[in-house]
UniProtKB/TrEMBL annotation:
Protein name listed in UniProt: citrate synthase (unknown stereospecificity)
Keyword Transferase applies: yes
A Pfam family the protein falls into: Citrate_synt
GO biological process, one term: carbohydrate metabolic process
UniProt-listed Enzyme Commission number(s): 2.3.3.16
Top EC class of this enzyme: transferase
Species whose genome carries this gene: Nesterenkonia sedimenti
Pathway the protein acts in: Carbohydrate metabolism; tricarboxylic acid cycle
Record-stated family: Belongs to the citrate synthase family.
PANTHER family associated with the record: CITRATE SYNTHASE (PTHR11739), CITRATE SYNTHASE, PEROXISOMAL (PTHR11739:SF4)
Domain Helix-turn-helix: 9-59
Keyword vocabulary terms for this entry: Transferase
Endpoints of the signal sequence: none
GO cellular component: cytosol
Amino acid sequence: MASDAQSAMLTSDEVAARLGVKVQTLYAYVSRGLIGCLRTPQGSRFDPLEVEEFAARRRSQPVRRQGSLAAKPLMVLDTDLAVVEDDELYLRGQPAGALARSRTVEEVAAWIWTGDYAAELTRPSQQDLTAAEAFLAAMPAAASRTDQLSALALALSATDPQTAAGTAQGLQAAGSRFLLAAPAVLAHSSGGARRQTDSPADSSSVAEQLWLALSDQDLQPEYLQAINAALILTIDHDLAVSTLAGRIAASARGSGYAVLSAALGAFATPLHGHASHSAARLLRSIRSGQGPHHAVAEIMTSTNGRGLPGFGHFAYQDGDCRAKTLLELIPALPHGPAVVEAVAALVEEAGGSGQLQPNIDLALAALTQAAGMNDDDAPLFFALGRSVGWIAHAIAEYHQQPLRLRPQGRYTGP
């Protein structure tokens, strides 16, 4: 019978899948001393964290191997929205961490779209909200938060007489209505509401409505700061696959709702937007009493070689600055101390190496659990914040030649 330590390790097939190589190549690494291997009667076993550190080292090398998750990109597009320099994320030249500590998501959205923090956003009407609530109420109970956001984009498109308006103003209006409607609609959707404000069409902030809809804890100012920070820190981060999908829709002159729908389709994937849900599962297993080593091995096995959720990011040498900013706000939340303790246990298990420090996915998982929310709310915050960036990229794409992002296929068949 395998020992507990051995059962928490990975098989050669699992490691090969994680690294994107053949099993024979994996054993070549072992023979060269690049990665350790434990021989057992059941076969070779590998330490999951050593595997993850090795994968991170390979990603940081200048030569990118075909099949790796960090393979050379197919295209490079100009963007003036976000950049990471010296491990700091900047939005339009401003440190994202500073914006997250001092602004609301409404102010930052207005500034990114128009250049003015005080610019007025287009609010959804009561008719818009009523129609969207009915749309979401008809969804199956198992629908995810990103499913609900996709349905919201469709519903708002159906009630907007300017849906087909191919202008930057039309894109901004669509983004505004989506951002401001989501909290109110979620407060009335099946399986989501805890409480709601007096009127779904009131002028309460996005952060306040989200808290009241998703948490059963009384509202405090520091809670609103954490919600706003989560939304602002996720607005943009280079050209993620969801952002590219949105820009492709904009390249074909899709409406703001078409952009949001396309982006959400690419977002709702295990290697992008839903990674925060996996990180939430990992964090909750620690909080339920499972040992960190076993929790890490279990989650890495269940994610089919996709790595350790919530840790590491190729853009940072010394840790994800977005995670650092958001995690600093977690202790002030209702269940903050217990969640911080669980995060610390995971960080200690990961060894604290520069490549395996917490990323934004773990920080979002920590936020939702510290607030008493559901694990599926972590992708919700990510997608809602990122919607601001999707619309900004769509506005930029509208200034480019239409259909420039339609690639030419190269036939390789028989």
